[in-house]
Write a structure and sequence with these properties.
- The chain is an all-alpha fold and 461 residues long.
- It has 18 helices and no strands.
- Helix 1 packs across helix 14, helix 3 packs across helix 10 and helix 9 packs across helix 12.
- Bound molecules: tryptophan (TRP).
- Tryptophan binds next to helix 1, helix 2, helix 10 and helix 14.
């Protein structure tokens, strides 16, 4: 094996891939993985499909009561094991007196990352394709119909979509193959603030669009009649998705975390930043939806229609639009790096491949699987089973089944399998914060996940 087992506890354990240079670097890297298409593209459209306010409420409760403790659990497991998620779960499973078979949780995470990226990359490809479209002024003065036609034509063309997906995957593989820590840290340090700034510019526009009151009321008026159990499951799935939880990504990043960094503080910062971006995206998009009489339940095309419409009417819109889609592509790309990292780290450590070989193998697999999603908007749009198209099935399976299940097993592991001493050591002592975390991780998070899960898939209720 590539690791020598230390007998004197975990303090001497170190990661093969080095460590983050500071707490800020770690927070930025996790924020970079968290803030992505999930916040700006997915959150508004699933909130729209589930009637708005009540969904947003449930989502916020899930983020704080489930997302935060699960994130802390994932980071502490990662830091204690210091390996890829598969090896870490096997090692800690044994060390904590349970079983090496916990490695299957790591394997499920690797598979989830591959499946998520297979469709994530296709959507990221749409954002790439929107950069030249915005620059060329295609949206200037465009009507709702014009913008809808541009979007439908793009996703309806298997050639364009496949080219964009290929470009996105190639750039992801390129960076991962070269090792991510320096490049990633630098990109995120600049891009997260840039994205925030652009969202604020757009918010300024949304405030004056005439639909702001309607947008705010759609997002914050809680009408629980509009919410189904499936909607509650989607809110919980989105909490996991947007925080990059339940699949070992944060665990992999935690493996590179210095011993003295506070896990609680870092997790809280990431959760706050991620939530800010989701709320901002909603406050930008829904006012524009209502000002232009669009349908908030329009689905995956929502931001690709509403935002270009806004850019088309703004002074300097071609410029802002292009910059927006560039920054969003980069946000997607820093998330993509997090999605492949568990798989790549595992292939490197387990099969003794170079990082380059591992990136090409994992990336190639994802690219091939992604064709299923790319084509499900055009050539294969008639292939409908279970939840709908191929894309809809992969999306549902990962967000609503694998991530909650992974999150459940992770908190059960940290709360019940690991002993008190191990977890309190990682979380900086057994004070009140620790007690609250342990209570949430042992009882609240698992019970809530299980309840919502069983209710939604129809086993109880
Ligand atoms: N959080 C990302 C987003 O909101 C998507 C995502 C889900 C992710 N799981 C991940 C990113 C794991 C990195 C690692 O867009």
């Amino acid at each position: 094996m590539m690791f020598k087992e230390e007998e004197s506890g975990t303090a001497q354990r170190f990661s093969l891939h080095g460590h983050w240079s500071s707490r800020l670097a770690f927070v930025l890297a996790v924020t970079g993985s968290a803030v992505g298409l999930g916040n700006i593209w997915k959150f508004p459209y699933i909130a729209g499909e589930n009637g708005g306010g009540a969904f947003v409420m449930v989502y916020l409760v899930c983020v704080v009561a489930i997302g935060l403790p699960v994130m802390m659990a994932e980071i502490l497991i990662g830091r204690r094991g210091r390996r890829n998620p598969v090896a870490t779960m096997a090692l800690l499973g044994e060390e904590e007196g349970a079983s090496r078979q916990w490695k299957w949780l790591g394997i499920m995470g690797v598979v989830a990352g591959i499946l998520i990226l297979s469709y994530y990359s296709v959507v990221a490809g749409w954002t790439l394709a929107y950069i030249p479209k915005s620059m060329s002024g295609a949206f200037s003065g465009a009507t709702v119909e014009d913008v809808e036609v541009i979007f439908t034509n793009l996703i309806g063309s298997w050639v364009s979509v496949t080219i964009a997906h290929t470009l996105f995957m190639a750039s992801t593989v390129f960076v991962v193959a070269h090792g991510v820590e320096r490049g990633l840290e630098q990109a995120v340090r600049f891009m997260v603030p840039a994205l925030l700034l652009l969202m604020l510019v757009l918010l300024g526009y949304a405030v004056t669009s005439g639909g702001f009151a309607a947008g705010v009321s759609f997002m914050f008026t809680t009408d629980f009649d509009a919410l189904t159990w499936d909607g509650v499951l989607q809110a919980m799935g989105q909490a996991f998705f947007t925080l990059s939880l339940g699949m070992g990504a944060v665990m992999a990043y935690g493996a590179y975390l210095p011993e003295e960094t506070s896990i609680t503080g870092s997790s809280a910062s990431v959760v706050a930043a991620d939530t800010l971006f989701a709320i901002l995206a909603g406050l930008v998009i829904f006012p524009l939806v209502f000002a232009n009489n669009l349908d908030p339940a329009e689905g995956p095309g929502l931001v690709f229609v509403t935002l270009p419409l806004a850019f088309g009417q703004m002074a300097g819109g071609a410029f802002f639009g292009a910059v927006f889609f560039i920054v969003l592509s980069i946000a997607a790309w820093t998330s993509a790096l997090g999605l492949v990292e568990p798989g790549v780290a595992w292939v490197v450590e387990h099969f003794g491949r170079t990082r380059m070989q591992a990136s090409v193998m994992v990336g190639g697999t994802i690219w091939a699987l992604g064709l299923g999603t790319a084509l499900s908007f055009n050539v294969l749009s008639d292939v409908i089973f279970l939840r709908g198209t191929i894309y809809q099935n992969v999306e549902y399976l990962t967000s609503n089944i694998i991530l909650p299940l992974g999150g459940l097993l992770i908190t059960v592991f940290a709360g019940w399998v690991m002993c008190r001493n191990s977890t309190s050591e990682e979380l900086g002592g057994a004070g009140n914060t620790y007690k609250l975390w342990r209570f949430l991780a042992r009882y609240i998070a698992p019970a809530a996940i299980l309840l919502v899960f069983l209710e939604a898939i129809g086993i109880i209720g």
